[in-house]
Amino acid sequence: MKPWRKFLALMAWLLLFLCLLSYYLDKGPVGQMVRCVDASSCLLSPRLQQARLHYLNSNKHQVTLRPAEGRPGGQRSSQELLCELQRRASLRTLDGSQQPFAGMGWSGVVPGEPLGPMVPGSEIETCAVVMSAGAMLNSSLGAEIDSHDAVLRFNAAPTEGYEKDVGNKTTIRIMNSQILARPMFHFNSSSLYRDGTLVWYEDPDFDFFTPYVDRRRKRPDQPFYILHPAFLWGLWDVIQSNSEETIQPNPPSSGFIGIAVMLALCRQVHVYEYIPSSRQTDLCHYFEPHINAACTLGAYHPLLYEKLLVQRMSASTTPDDLHQGSRVTLPGFSTVDCGGDPVTYDPPPTKIHKKFN
């Protein structure tokens, strides 16, 4: 065999070895996650543990990190957790009147009515939050999902071709700035974003304002909201206050944001494939062949801690039920007797300006 062929063969074997090594290092005990009582980074693979430490050290959003509050949060009941989430992270969208948003031209562009039920004065009875996880494949959950009064999906998650597993109803779609700004998503022409209520989250890493204004002018009757950063960081504070470790100082995942939105709008919420079931896979999304364990347990987002918190909020469901099934059932805020008024959370100015300047 010629030397260059030997070299190529050696490199091929080396790449195969590295791929296998990465795969097994990332195979964290996901099935055990739903059996854990307290959040623990020990559940993460070495690579994801390093990623968590990296984000803690870099602290991109200049969050004031404090020692985790520990056991008091661990002792809260599911009702207490839901009430804390309602009080400390009340659903808010931008109205364009506050700084720095007023100075950025948001006033007069965002919807005048707050994000709420599709029919004013009424509540949505049953809602489905459909994760984009690869575990949705071969689930045959489509008909069950479509039976809900409202269905929330994320980003560019399609339904066409996957109806048997994910259904085809979409009432609300939560998106990040890439969907609007990157041509590959065909925001203005794709049927994915044509109907229903659109909700945007996260910081505008891409040019977001221009396509947002363009969309609002072309389709003024389509509700298109922007979640207030105070809402996002209020969610983060609830996760942190109920975790024994210091979590990643980054906004929550879209999944947790979507759950919180629907808890505010619906009487009962079913969340599909957020807590990994027996179909768990490292396939990130059911519609594309990308494999990464971080999609399940998190690297940038504090996903592990979010999921353990949601598990605790669903106290009526046992860990084994969560693992064998595909959904978590949560009561909407309106059905939980919390007493008192929600707390308006206003993060330090650095959190807002860091994200929007």
Description:
- By secondary structure, the protein is an alpha/beta fold.
- It has 15 helices and nine strands.
- The protein has a single domain, classed as sialyltransferase cstii, chain A (Alpha-Beta Complex).
- Helices cover 37% and strands 12% of the residues.
- It has a seven-stranded mixed sheet with strand order 5-4-3-2-1-6-9. A two-stranded antiparallel sheet has the order 7-8.
- Helix 8 links the parallel strand 3 (172-175) and strand 4 (197-200).
- The N and C termini lie far apart (59 Å).
- The relative contact order is 0.19.
- The model is unreliable at 12-39 and 343-357 (pLDDT under 50).
* Number of β-strand runs: 9
- CATH structural architecture: Alpha-Beta Complex
**What is the CATH fold-level name?**
sialyltransferase cstii, chain A
* Secondary structure tally, helices: 15
Instruction: Write the element-wise H/E pattern from the N-terminal end onward.
Output: HHHHHEHEHEHEHEHHEEEHHHEH
Shape: globular
CATH class division? Alpha Beta
| Sheet with most strands: strand arrangement | 5-4-3-2-1-6-9
Largest sheet: 7 strands, mixed
Computed over alpha carbons, the radius of gyration is 21 Å
Helix content: 25-40%
GO cellular component, one term: Golgi cisterna membrane
Membrane topology: Single-pass type II membrane protein
Protein name: Beta-galactoside alpha-2,6-sialyltransferase 1
InterPro entries: Glyco_trans_29, GT29-like_sf
Summed up, what is this model?
By secondary structure, the protein is α/β, with parallel strands linked by helices.
Annotate the secondary structure layout.
Elements lengths: L2 H23 L4 H4 L12 H13 L12 H4 L3 H11 L35 E7 L11 H5 L3 E5 L8 H4 L5 E4 L1 H5 L15 E4 L8 H10 L5 E3 L2 H13 L12 H12 E7 L10 E3 L2 E4 L2 H4 L5 H11 L5 H6 L2 E5 L17 H8 L1
